[in-house]
Amino acid sequence: MSVNAGWFDSERIIDSNGRELANTNPNPTVIYRAGVDLNTSFHGTDLLKIRVETGSGGALDNAGGVLEPNFGSSLDYSVKPPVNRDMVIGRLYYTFKPSTDFIVSIGPDIRATDYVDRNSYANRSFLDFSTQPLVNNFILFPVSGPAAGAAIDWKPGQGAFTIRGVYAATDAANPGNTGRITGTSTFARLLYPNPGGDRGLFGDSYQGTVEIEYSPTRNFALRLQYSQGEVFNNRFDVVGANIELSLGKQLGVFGRYGYGRFENTAFGNIEPNYWMAGVSLRDLFQTGAIFGVAVGQPFIDSNIGNATQTSLEAFYNYPLSQNIRITPSVQVITNAGNQDSNGDIVTSTLRTVFFF
To answer: Are residues 289 and 318 in contact, defined by beta-carbon separation less than 8 angstroms?
Structure first.
């Protein structure tokens, strides 16, 4: 549950195509997301997960999503689940272990981001950062929402290397090119304003991602990634890197980088870059508290707009009790939508999370 407000310091805000999005500040809002996991195990080492969840209105229930809708400024937990006060199935999958170091997950409702590009300091929007390009590698996941597919996690001999892979297909229950495709990233809809595709489990839009992690100690991890697939009948290829380093028990530094190629977009064949970096400090003023600050540029490409958007977020997560956490956060967006005429956007959020 959150309270959110935001404002900007220019006459108006335009999107990447020059369309006006706002000429007055949006009103403050109250946001909610609720979910319940139903977990079942048949053998003790497997898991059948069914998640039932609802939310207050998707990307448009917060100021960041209203003022900058394409490059991940909406709060991550507002977009997930992408519902408008409907009760939906948010996860449905089965996980099992053919061997002690090999894990397989398969299901009709998964998220690619559950299996790759994880980070100890910047990955869980109910605990740390809420700005999407700070939670995941923004361009690595053109398919970021509900999908059907499978994932593997292999840690040979429980050593320093881990190999992960995931395949995710949106609208897998639809055998033909009818209806609206859900599950793609907001930037995919900017690149391809006339979405279409063959649908189904092996039609588009889909993506496959492979990740190799090297973690010789608990204090360091480097993950190298590659995504390939099709979004709205057009191919993409993206490489990425994800790094984290713990400096003692309290301080951590982390970052991500991505480079991709997207074909036949509304802006031509483009090759965007992405990066983010940040620092996190735990047990600040209170045992269990988390402070974090990070900055990133979600979509660097000179073909889109005349500038490069920069997103910054700072938060302080304070535990009121073992089951309740309250988090004030501030988000600053400059050159929103890659447009230099847009003034700075500032949003503030007070997030409260209940665990049970």
So the answer is: yes
Lowest-pLDDT range of 55-64, 99-108, 255-264, 335-344: 55-64
pLDDT digits (tens, 9 = 90+) for 165-217: 999 999 888 877 766 777 889 899 899 988 777 788 888 889 999 999 999 99
Could you please report the per-residue DSSP string of 211-238?
EEEEEEETTEEEEEEEEEEEETTEEEEE
Closest Cα partner for 190 from 296, 105, 301?
301
Please tell me the predicted confidence (pLDDT) of residue 81: 61
Q: How far is CA 82 from CA 77, 90, 239, 265, 278, in A?
A: 9, 9, 26, 24, 27
Other CB atoms within a 10 A radius of the CB of residue 168 amount to 29
Domain ranges of the chain: 2-354
Kindly state the tokens that stand for 133.
């390009």
pTM of the model: 0.92
CATH T-level topology, domain 2-354: Porin (2.40.160)
Closest CA to 243 of 231, 232, 257, 230: 257
With 0-12 / 13-18 / 19 or more C-beta atoms within 10 angstroms meaning exposed / middle / buried, residue 226 is middle
Question: When comparing pLDDT for 82 and 52, which is higher?
Answer: 52
**Kind and range of the H or E run holding 349:** strand 345-354
Nearest 5°: the CA angle 265, 76, 22 is: 65
Structure tokens, 150: 């499978």
Length of the chain: 356
Q: Which burial class, exposed, middle or buried, applies to 173 when counting CB atoms under 10 A from its CB (0-12, 13-18, 19+)?
A: exposed
Distance in angstroms (rounded) separating the CA atoms of residues 115 and 188:
21
Query: Does the CA dihedral 120-125-131-135 come out positive or negative?
Result: positive
| Strand (E) or helix (H) holding 92 | strand 88-99
Neighbours of 269 (CB within 10 A): 11
As a whole-number percent, the residues of the chain with pLDDT over 70 amount to: 98
Can you tell me the distance from the alpha carbon of 183 to that of 141, in angstroms, rounded to the nearest whole number?
Answer: 10
DSSP bridge partners of 270: 262
